[in-house]
């Protein structure tokens, strides 16, 4: 599309204004179980059958299904008796709850929690800080106390974190040859569902991974997510700002630094450097901004999420390198994975 066409009719802006409508249609179909039902059913189903089985109105369901067809989330076959809907391969793989690559919990967190917080984006930009007080009436002095404001919210957050690793975890762990490192420490909490830890032991079967997190997260991870017979994954309860960090060969900080301002990142990295065995290192896993911050859009948007919900931000490779160097790490290497999360490695 040329610039002239852009100015004659603001196609791009109309497309952008539809952004949340599109997300909400996908999230709602997930939440109601449309994709799960179509996966289980023997063949395509009519909107009446889907509405009845899911306890929804026929009037509402037909419109939702047609919008899903428009979004290529469903296929449709028009017969003399009416329209019959089926999943596309993409929906079966990523939008059903039972798929090993399911993004159901990822999208439910967006639909419920993030969507709600983003109603206060204007305030977040004005104030330059997260919006827990306005959105939920709670103080964010203790950031993770606010994020884990109820047991239900904590589990939803953990499931959200874990979903991503089923589609990006392997690329992150395989980005560098980590084979000399076998004692791995990761504050990964719900990720604690063990997504990244499981990728570590799958790629490096001789490694052991210690999941380090706040006590209540470790308890939930043990109870719900890591089978007790998996002896290569162990747990360590602690507060990484207050308590000692155990000695290890490799420290993985996945989506940890983006929660915090530079001073807290430096405090944590310095502690990690002190405990790191000589020759070991730290692997930072984050979505990286371009050096001039002109993209990628996914990283720019994630940084806005960080504004609304945390004390941190997304960073450029140079910003990460500066923090790592200030903490004492050297030989800093950056790898883009081509997927959502990239990797920065620093050595001691
Ligand atoms: N690394 C995991 C992943 O990528 O799936 C989790 C990332 S999550 C955004 C940040 C994690 O840091 C949470 O599990 C949280 O409980 C943990 N965390 C926050 N503050 C902490 C603290 N003071 N001490 C230990 N863990 C903390």
Automatic annotation (TrEMBL):
GO molecular function ontology, one term from the record: acetylserotonin O-methyltransferase activity
Q: Which top-rank group of organisms is this from?
A: Eukaryota
A Pfam family it matches:
Dimerisation
O-methyltransferase C-terminal domain ranges (all copies): 118-330
Enzyme class comes to transferase
Q: Where is the O-methyltransferase dimerisation domain?
A: 15-96
GO BP terms, alphabetized: melatonin biosynthetic process; methylation
Q: Where is the active site?
A: 258
Q: Cite the entry's keywords alphabetically.
A: Melatonin biosynthesis, Methyltransferase, S-adenosyl-L-methionine, Transferase
- Stated EC number for the protein is 2.1.1.4
Pathway-wise, it operates in: Aromatic compound metabolism; melatonin biosynthesis; melatonin from serotonin: step 1/2
Q: Which InterPro entries match?
A: COMT-like, COMT_C, COMT_dimerisation, SAM-dependent_MTases_sf, WH-like_DNA-bd_sf, WH_DNA-bd_sf
UniProt subunit comment:
Homodimer.
Q: What does this protein do?
A: Catalyzes the transfer of a methyl group onto N-acetylserotonin, producing melatonin (N-acetyl-5-methoxytryptamine).
> What's the protein here called?
Acetylserotonin O-methyltransferase
């Amino acid at each position: 599309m040329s610039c002239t066409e852009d100015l004659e009719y603001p196609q791009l802006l109309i497309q952008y204004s539809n952004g949340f409508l599109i997300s909400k249609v996908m999230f709602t179909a997930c939440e109601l179980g449309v994709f799960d039902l179509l996966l289980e059913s023997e063949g395509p189903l009519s909107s009446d059958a889907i509405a009845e089985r899911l306890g929804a109105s026929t009037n509402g369901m037909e419109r939702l299904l047609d919008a899903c067809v428009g979004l290529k989330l469903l296929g449709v076959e028009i017969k003399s008796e009416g329209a019959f809907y089926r999943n596309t391969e993409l929906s079966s793989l990523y939008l059903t709850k039972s798929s090993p690559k399911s993004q159901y919990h990822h999208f439910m967190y967006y639909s419920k929690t993030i969507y709600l917080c983003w109603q206060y984006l204007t305030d977040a930009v004005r104030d330059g800080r997260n919006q827990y007080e306005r959105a939920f009436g709670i103080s964010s002095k203790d950031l993770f106390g606010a994020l884990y404001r109820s047991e239900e919210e904590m589990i939803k957050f953990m499931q959200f974190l874990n979903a991503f690793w089923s589609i990006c975890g392997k690329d992150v762990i395989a980005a560098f040859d980590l084979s000399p490192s076998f004692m791995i420490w990761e504050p990964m909490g719900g990720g604690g569902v063990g997504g990244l830890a499981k990728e570590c032991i799958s790629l490096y079967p001789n490694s052991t991974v210690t999941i380090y997190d706040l006590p209540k997260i470790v308890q939930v991870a043990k109870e719900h997510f890591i089978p007790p017979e998996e002896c290569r994954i162990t747990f360590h309860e602690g507060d990484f700002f207050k308590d000692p960090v155990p000695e290890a060969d490799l420290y993985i900080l996945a989506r940890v630094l983006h929660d915090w301002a530079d001073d807290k990142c430096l405090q944590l990295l310095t502690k990690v450097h002190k405990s790191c065995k000589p020759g070991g290192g730290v692997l930072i896993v984050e979505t990286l901004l371009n050096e001039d911050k002109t993209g990628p859009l996914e990283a720019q948007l994630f940084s806005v999420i960080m504004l609304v919900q945390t004390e941190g931000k997304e960073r450029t490779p140079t910003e990460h390198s500066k923090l790592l160097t200030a903490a004492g790490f050297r030989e800093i290497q950056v790898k883009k994975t081509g997927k959502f999360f990239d990797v920065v490695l620093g050595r001691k």
